[in-house]
Prior knowledge:
- It is a single chain.
- This protein is α/β, with parallel strands linked by helices.
- It folds into two domains: 23-334 and 463-493, 3-Layer(aba) Sandwich (Alkaline Phosphatase, subunit A); 348-450, Gyrase A, domain 2 (2-Layer Sandwich).
- The protein is built from 17 helices and 19 strands.
- The strands form five sheets. It has a nine-stranded mixed sheet with strand order 2-19-12-1-11-6-7-8-5, sandwiched between helices. It has a four-stranded antiparallel sheet with strand order 14-15-17-16.
- Helix 3 packs across helix 13 (294-318), helix 12 packs parallel to helix 13 (294-318) and helix 15 packs across helix 17 (395-406).
- The radius of gyration is 25 Å and the shape is globular.
- The two termini are 42 Å apart.
Amino acid sequence: MHKTYLHIALTLVFLLSSMYVAAAARLTVVVVVDGLNEQNLTQMREYWPEGGLRLLSEEAYQTSVTFPHLVYGGDECTATLLTGVTPAEHGITMNTRFVRQDRRIHDVMEDTREKGIGTWQQLSPRALTTVTLSDALRLQYGDKAKIYAIGIHPTTTLLLAGHSANACCWIGTASPRDTELRWVTSSFYKEGLPSQADAMNIDGRFDTWLARQWTPRMDIALYTKPTERESKHAFNYLSSKYMPTVPVANSMVVDLALQIQKDQQLGTDLTPDMLLLELTTETPQSSSDRFQTAEQEDLYLWLNQDLGYLIEQLTRRIGRQYLDILVMGRPLRGISDDEMEQAGLSVQRFNVERAAALCSTYLMALYGHERWVDGGYGQSIYLNRTLIEQKRMSMETMQRQVANFLMELEGIQMAYPAHEAVIDRNLAPSLNKNTTGDVVFTLQSGWRLSYNDNELLDHVIDPTPSAPILYWSGSGKAYPGEPIDALSIRTLLQ
């Protein structure tokens, strides 16, 4: 009898200990960090005696992923990491898109069916055509799961929120010409602007953050990459003037996230919740994701502190064993022109707007003085489908003629009628039928895509840009035994 009781007791102890080691995460925190670079993380590690990045470097599963599609330095990478599919499926090929109806450039998330709350922008995640991490949680646990996204930029924040978040918010203004920053959101989400964000807007805390000055945390001589100007004068930025490229942007996101977690009791019951954040490493003078200035290094010091504070507070509130954290970088600027040229590699610009005008002139010479081309954007030329149909012309013939014409332009690697682009394994994953034009092209190595003489579309000219991934599981989940790719990040949380 005693042996039986002893056996039962030992079994219970084993089960309870197993439950503790592998407890289900009650709160998953997903953090996308703009411009986070693996080389920078390695360089700065000795500067972190403690903090969030130090903890992650010592305890997290780490890998670096490349992307199976074109990388422009927009949120096409964010969408890929969050959905596990390429732009061909998730629909976010760039942060902006060309609209045939008015032949103008629009935000990829623009949605006139919704209203902005606190902002003039009408946005929603409807352009995202697949399930995200947050959507998957909602589908599994229904309304009991609590999901909140807080970010700096609208597109990134909407991608983090997905279609199913309770609420989300980002930093914006009431009108295009307004300079007064505030937390804003879209009417798409049922809770509207989180009450905690609204309170920060009203009670002056937002303005208090913005009034802060950003100066170096250390003596300027201790940084490894100070510019000549920084060595003489250091740097000094007023947060309100240089938002969101100052550390206070990250601090504000973390501050609001912790307030929402506290008020909404995220991670305090058996139903898993999710908190999704956008942070940044972009600074006012940065032209590369890799360190070129002391201010970039300094922002990593602030990022380490902010992540450390976030992890410390959440661990104290809900317990380490119930907390999972996934930190993902996204290429923002890649390698700068100067870095390329120092390596003996020339960099040139391809103006897609000018290329579209040349295509139009070419078709006018063939078919008469009509507007045969609506415009050019991204790596697409948009033909005037309405006119071609009215004239009973052959669309396929015109597509072929324009593709052949583009092949004669300097900087073009290949050009195809859109329906034939599937043969290009590098290009096809980057094209989505909702945004792609009628003729598509690729550029030769060393060429950067621009819309006009001033607006760069291709901020990343590194041929294989990568992003660091760090996954820390207090709940005791087993880490993968080998590196994973950009399409498999979601498996870490399953």
